[in-house]
Write a structure and sequence with these properties.
By secondary structure, this protein is α/β, with parallel strands linked by helices. The protein has a single domain, classed as Spore Coat Polysaccharide Biosynthesis Protein SpsA, Chain A (Alpha-Beta Complex). Helix content is 36%, strand content 18%. The protein contains 9 helices and 11 strands. The strands form 3 sheets. The protein has a 7-stranded mixed β-sheet, with helices on both faces. Helix 3 links the parallel strand 4 and strand 5. The longest helix is centred in the middle third of the chain and has 18 residues. The radius of gyration is 18 Å and the shape is globular.
Length: 282
């Protein structure tokens, strides 16, 4: 049996056993491995889920799909493709609201944010988990660091992302290469300090800035963005770009969120606990 996987240079066929061995974690390893939760916000993504859910690596313990009032059979398709999936129905609107709901439903130690449109490769999840196990608190995906790429971003959106990233780097003394990308992972414990109070696509910017202001250890992980398989994106360049800009200035004026001494000690204990349990998963 063969399954279709994505690589940096296109799609290729890989034997199912090779897939499992290259991205999987054995039962013995799972007993000494942090629990990983994946949150997938989705609205009318029934046709795209077959490009996402079957490729979730076996190291993932929990998949939460937040359904944004879909009018197609998104939920039914998700349950058929991934019977163990936990579906949460969104009452409000917006990606930020959906992720906030999904985060609160997670039971894992690590939370991974994944889009439902087939633009993000689930096989990259182990790369994000490795970055966290290496001692970082927040692993932010980047399409514009070495090893990353985008087959979907338009010239206008690329220019806007560059200008907004440059603005953030000046105002916050950061070195972000990609500000507006939704493939990220972090320790759930970070949410004890970082609150999520936005509803739209500015959620990625808000997370990046608040993780930085809280002095969490951030690392950029190269990621390849593919084109949406079916349908059209809900992202609106100027409307959402304006929301991102307002978020940047709002966060610049607000006092930074700090990690308390207790939280720092807890984080250190957590890292020491997993230090001997790291497993390289590719």
């Amino acid at each position: 049996m063969f399954v279709e996987m994505k690589s940096g240079e296109g799609r290729f066929l890989m034997d199912e056993q090779q897939v499992r061995s290259s991205i999987g974690v054995g039962l013995a390893d799972k007993q000494a491995y942090p629990r990983v939760s994946v949150v997938i916000p989705a609205r009318n993504e029934a046709r795209n889920l077959c490009h996402v859910l079957p490729y979730i690596p076996s190291l993932v313990d929990e998949v939460i799909l937040v359904d944004g009032q879909s009018v197609d059979n998104t939920i039914e398709v998700a349950q058929q493709l991934f019977p163990a999936i936990h579906v949460v129905k969104q009452v409000g609107k917006g990606k930020g609201d959906a992720l906030r709901i999904g985060f609160s439903a997670c039971t894992g130690d690590i939370i991974v944010m994944l889009d439902a449109d087939g633009s993000a490769d689930p096989a990259e999840i182990p790369r994000f988990v490795e970055a966290l196990l290496a001692g970082h608190d927040f692993a932010k995906g980047s399409r514009f660091t070495s090893g990353g790429a985008s087959h979907d971003i338009t010239i206008l959106r690329h220019a806007g992302n560059y200008l907004l990233s440059s603005l953030v780097n000046v105002l916050f003394w950061t070195r972000f290469s990609d500000l507006c990308y939704g493939y990220n992972a972090f320790w759930k414990q970070c949410l004890d300090t970082v609150s999520i109070d936005c509803d739209g696509f500015e959620i990625e910017t808000l997370l990046n800035l608040r993780m930085h202001k809280a002095r969490f250890a951030i690392v950029e992980v190269p990621s390849i963005e593919y084109s949406r398989v079916h349908g059209e994106s809900n992202l609106r360049t100027f409307r959402d770009g304006w929301r991102v800009l307002k978020t940047i200035f709002k966060e610049r004026l607000q006092r930074p969120q700090r990690v308390s001494a207790t939280q720092k000690n807890t984080a250190q204990i957590r890292l020491e606990h997993y230090e001997g349990m790291k497993k390289v998963v590719r």
